[in-house]
Design goal:
single chain; alpha/beta; Aminopeptidase
Length: about 270
């Protein structure tokens, strides 16, 4: 079966259809025997899915991807499946864990929170929210070279990204420059009251910084060497936003691949 066309429009009625999204991931995993799809929990009457590699060794790239934690930010889930349909087969041999949509109840209703009114991205310090507890159990013991969480922002004036890295060199500026050919970075000097430059935000992270840890903090403290939260402007066209998420994944994973295989032992991820 040939890969899906990455430029096929992802229409609003389809990007918010969680059943269709799950079916797309199921079909994809059936084509890729090095992956498995399993149900790790339930929330608001919806089954929660994770896509993972089977086994793996410590000397290959390790990757975490997630989308859809805020239901009113649909482009990340759309961009993730579009990227995966074209490029995921190139990551055979990697250690991979993908959460395609963390808040399907909110996605289908265009609501930020879950069915219980939780902003899930402020619940990672606690195991009292069942779907977060189930996700943390699925992540237990895993370490990632790179973690990416996909988001959107109604106030954004272009794309921007948060970088949290426990190691140097930083990637944010390079990724922003590469992506700027497809969309302009957010020009604001302050984003969420934090200094930003060319759409890149970088700050020291410590426990208790926010009321409730976001997903990126949990990843940084317990799992990931390098974490990005990527944001696109919610007021832009959906098809364009989906494409920018797809493009960001492509650029970021090529960056990770180039660090692991500096002499070009592996194919470009696109």
């Amino acid at each position: 079966m040939s890969p899906a066309n990455p430029h096929t429009p992802f229409l609003p009625d389809k990007v918010r259809n969680y059943r269709l999204l799950t079916q797309k991931w199921m079909r994809l995993v059936r084509r890729l025997p090095f992956l498995k799809l399993r149900f790790y929990g339930e929330a608001g009457g919806y089954p929660l899915i994770v896509v993972e590699s089977e086994g793996g060794t410590d000397d290959v790239p390790s990757l975490y991807l997630s989308a859809g934690i805020h239901g009113d930010e649909p482009a990340g889930a759309g961009g993730l499946i579009q990227w995966a349909e074209v490029s995921l087969h190139l990551l055979k041999g990697w250690n991979i864990q993908i959460f395609p949509c963390l808040n399907p109840w909110g996605l289908e209703r265009n609501i930020r929170t879950d069915a219980e009114g939780h902003d899930l991205n402020r619940c990672y310090q606690s195991r009292k929210v069942p779907q977060i507890a189930a996700q943390l159990a699925a992540m237990k013991g895993r370490r990632y070279d790179l973690a990416i969480t996909l988001h959107e922002d109604y106030d954004a004036r272009g794309f921007y990204l948060y970088e949290i890295a426990s190691q140097r060199f930083h990637w944010g500026e390079s990724l922003s420059e590469s992506l700027s050919a497809s969309m302009s970075p957010d020009s604001r000097r302050l984003i969420d009251s934090i200094r930003a430059k060319n759409g890149v935000i970088r700050r020291k992270v410590k426990k208790g910084l926010l009321k409730g840890d976001p997903e990126a903090f949990r990843l940084h403290f317990h799992h990931a060497k390098r974490t990005f939260t990527f944001e696109t402007p919610s007021e832009d066209f959906l098809v364009r936003r989906v494409e920018i998420h797809r493009k960001f994944l492509e650029i970021s994973l090529n960056k990770l691949q180039s660090e692991y295989y500096p002499r070009g032992f592996s194919k470009s991820i696109h």
